[in-house]
Amino acid sequence: MDLKQIAKDTAKTLQSYLTYQALRTVLAQLGETNPPLAHWLQNFSAGKIQDGEAYIEELFLEKSDLALRIMTVREHIAAEVADFLPEMVCTGIQQANMEQRRQHLERITQLNLSSPSPETPKTDNI
């Protein structure tokens, strides 16, 4: 297990996700202030946001002002969440793992109540 590579891959994924969140924020702002530009950005961004850096590079070629705006918002979001993100991730994984284990334990220990159990023969007291 290469923890350094895992950390790099995680950081890249998080960076792309923050780019996506910055895009959503900018789209909401533009929706209020400049709907035609918001529509253009929405169409431009469709299917391109998987790799945040490649997306930003391509957006720079089309509309550098929007690329700069998204980068600024992304940086702001990262600064706001960076302090509590590691603890939230660890706590979230611990809670999710505990819930998955609980559900698994319930499944494997459940009796099959849908099939009738053999009844004991009744005796007549005469």
List the keywords:
76% helix; single chain; Non-ribosomal Peptide Synthetase Peptidyl Carrier Protein, Chain A
Description:
The protein is built from five helices and no strands. It is mostly helical. It has a single domain (9-99), classed as Chaperonin-like RbcX (Non-ribosomal Peptide Synthetase Peptidyl Carrier Protein, Chain A, Orthogonal Bundle). Helix 1 packs antiparallel against helix 2 (35-45), helix 1 (3-33) crosses helix 4 and helix 3 runs antiparallel to helix 4. The longest helix has 31 residues, at 3-33. The protein is elongated and about 60 Å long. It starts with a helix and ends in a 17-residue tail after the last helix. The mean pLDDT is 89.
Number of domains: 1
CATH superfamily: Chaperonin-like RbcX
The secondary structure category is mainly alpha
- SSE string: HHHHH
The main β sheet shows up as: none
Helix content: over 70%
Rg is 26 Å
Can you tell me the CATH topology? Non-ribosomal Peptide Synthetase Peptidyl Carrier Protein, Chain A
Q: β content, as a range?
A: under 5%
Main location: other
Subcellular location: Carboxysome; Cytoplasm
Keywords: Bacterial microcompartment, Carbon dioxide fixation, Carboxysome, Chaperone, Cytoplasm, Photosynthesis
InterPro entries: Chaperonin_RbcX_sf (IPR038052), Chaperonin_RcbX (IPR003435), RbcX (IPR046381)
How are the SSEs ordered, and which strands pair?
Blueprint: H1 3-33, H2 35-45, H3 52-62, H4 64-81, H5 85-109
Helix pairs in contact: 1-2, 1-4, 3-4
Summarize the structure.
Belongs to the RbcX family. Homodimer. Interacts with the exposed C-terminal peptide of RbcL via its central cleft, contacts a second RbcL monomer via its peripheral polar surface. With 126 residues, the protein is mostly helical.
